[in-house]
Each structure stands twice: as C-alpha cells, then as structure tokens.
Amino acid sequence: MTPHAEAVTEDTSLPAALGTRFAMRGLRSAGFGVIIAVCLTLAFGWSFRSTLAHSVCIAIVSWFTIDLGRMAASVWIHRREPPSANRNIGRWPGWPWMLPIILVGTIVGFSVGGSVGDWLSGTYTPGFLRATWSEALAVLLLSLVPGVVITYWFYSRETIAATEAAVQTAQRQAAEHQLKLLESQLEPHMLFNTLANLRVLIGVDPPRAQAMLDQLIAFLRATLGASRVSSHPLATEFTRLADYLALMQVRMGERLQAHFDLPDALAALAVPPLLLQPVVENSIKHGLEPKVEGGRIDVSARRDGGQLVLEVRDTGAGLSGMRSDGTQFGLMQVRERLATLYGANASLELVNAGDAEGGTRATLRLPLP
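The chain above was modelled as a monomer; its predicted structure follows.
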C-alpha cells in the first residue's frame, strides 16, 4: 500500500470511528437515564412512566450538549497542531474547560429535556428556568454531581481504550519492523552465497557460470515483488523454491534432485515469504554438498489438526555431518521470524531422517491462518 493510500484510508476511517463512539456515548447516556428513573421511582414513589420520560430526555439532551461542547473545545485548543480536525475532535480538553461545559449542558438538559419529557408524558413540571432560585440551585447541584461522575466515566473509558489501541498499534508496528529487518538480512545472505558460487564457476566452467547468472537474474526478477509483501500463497512459496533449486542445479548438476508435494487444498494458504528457502539452503550446504554423489531434497506440506506442517527432507550427510564452521544464519532467522509472527504456536525442528536413505528432516509447524 502506498503512503497516499494509507493516508486516504486513515482519513476516511477516522470520522466513521468517531461517529460510532459518539453514538455509543448517546446510548449509554440513555441507559443512565433509565437507571436514574428506576432509582427515583423506588426512592420517592413517583410515576415510573413520567419519571422515565423526563430522566431519559434530560440525560440525552445533557449528553448531547456536553459532548458537542467538549469536541468544539478540543478543536479550538488544538487548532494550531499538525493533526487533522477529525483527530482533534476525539481529544480531552481538560477539566478547566469541561466544568463550565458540564454546567451549561446540565442547564440546557434540564430546560430542553424537561420540556420534551413534559410533552411525552403529558405532565407539567416547573423545570429549571421556571423554578425559584432555591429550587433551581438545588436541582443544579444535584444534577452536577451525576453529570461530573458520568463525564469522568466516559473520559476514563475512552482514555483506557485509546491507550490500549496505541499499545496494540506499537506492538504491531514493532513486529512488522522486526520482520522487515529479518527479511532484509536474509535476502543478502542467500545472494552472497550464490555470488560466491558463481565466482568459482567463472574460473572453472564459464558456460555453466553464464547459465547460472541467467538463472539468477530470472530468480531475482521473480522474487522482487514477493519480497515486499508480508505473506503470499503457499503455492507461490513452492514456486519460488523451485526457481531457487533450479538455480542451484546449474551449479550442482545431477548431484541435486528435487521433489515437491503440495496438496491442492493447501495451495492458497497464506505463509510468510522466504520461510522455506533458508531451510532448503541449509540442506544443500550441510547435507548434499558434503556428499560426492549429492542427493535429493523433498519439500512437502500437510495439515495436522489446526497446524500447517511444512517439511524439508534431504538425503545428505545428516546432522552428524553438519560442518562446525557454519553459523546456521538462515535457520536462526527462520526461528526468529516464527517467534515474531506466531510466538510459541510455531516451531522449527531438525532431526535425522532415521531411514535407509539417511539425511536430515526439517519440520516447520505454524498455525493455520
């Protein structure tokens, strides 16, 4: 996704998210009105129908006035900051602004909401503006307490939700950056090994070196686009492995044979790119190259319950023949990528094949998407 596309997505999603939260606050305010009506009815024996109409109308009008005042204050306070007005609407302006907004909202709520409640219930109440000063002051003080409490409750919930969202976003970005770093380290590792082999062939077998160079160019062209995505179909991963092994066969000739087994039902499953290539590269370096006659590499996929099992088996020298001078850089990167993506739900295990053909069996287990 391009930066422009990301900006468009963010700009169009912010108003929708703010509108949803605004509506949810309205529904919760109406719910508080119902609770207050029940409490007043039980405490004073008032008519529930009339009390309910007045409580809900006053709560909704008070919430609407206070919330609009909060958003207007937020936009005004942060008007000179870089973020857009849509983002500023969701900010908290602070209690010095909110206390007078709550006071005005309470007065408007009792005046307008009380009148609407009178109309709905068919009753008459003196209201805020028609009451005496002592009655108006008593109503105002009694109303400010739940108004401040409910406003603080809304503020706390939104603050917690915003903090959790920020933490999740930071964790996701950290994981994405880690994966990009691992992939950028992994691709040069494969390329440097191939170029080192190509340098040797140039001196001993120029025609094979030219064929290997052509295969390398084709391989890099085919994998350039795939290396920029976070996942691709398992069938694409197998295709890239086939291209890589074709590149290696230019150098090794008949000493390298390959076999693939990918069930059609698993071909479309999304997997991280460059996941199997370092495992295959390890099989060639430590398994087949030490054997004069070479060997075969079998790559397969299967489903095991809720896991996708990917297996790379070679008929090479086995774990006992693994050279001690190698760093196993590729396998380390695979394990780190699996841990970053799936945590303890994924694993990479290397064991001796344990049959007459010998060699090593590398098994990757990751949760099915």
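The chain has two domains: 3-130, 176-367.
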